[in-house]
Design a protein that fits this description.
Number of helices: 3
CATH class: Alpha Beta
Order of helices and strands: EEEHHH
Distance between the termini: 10 Å
Radius of gyration: 11 Å
Strand order of the largest sheet: 1-2-3
Largest sheet: 3 strands, antiparallel
CATH architecture: 2-Layer Sandwich
Structural class: alpha+beta
CATH topology: Enolase-like, domain 1
Length: 84
């Protein structure tokens, strides 16, 4: 089991907490801060998905004029988690 508490950057959210099993499938995802309803929904959707699939779908999403977004920060957290 891999887990991470990733400090986000450039978003309203503050942290991404995530766990994945030995098959690189997300078993738990929580985003602290940000738009609670939207992020809670995204976390529910990605549980059960492979890390690489989540990263591919969420990477590069922007929030308005910002160069990143909470979903993009989830993808960045996954990049760090994959290094473990």
């Amino acid at each position: 089991m891999k887990s991470i508490m990733y400090k986000t950057s450039g978003t309203c959210s503050q942290f991404v907490e995530m766990e994945a099993d030995e098959n690189n499938v997300v078993t738990r995802a929580v985003v602290v801060g940000g738009c609670h309803g939207n992020l809670h929904g995204i976390c529910k959707l990605i549980v059960g998905m492979r890390l690489e699939d989540v990263k591919e779908r969420l990477s590069g999403i922007r929030c308005g004029s910002k160069p990143t977004s909470c979903p993009d920060q989830i993808a960045k957290a996954i990049e760090e988690l994959e290094k473990q």
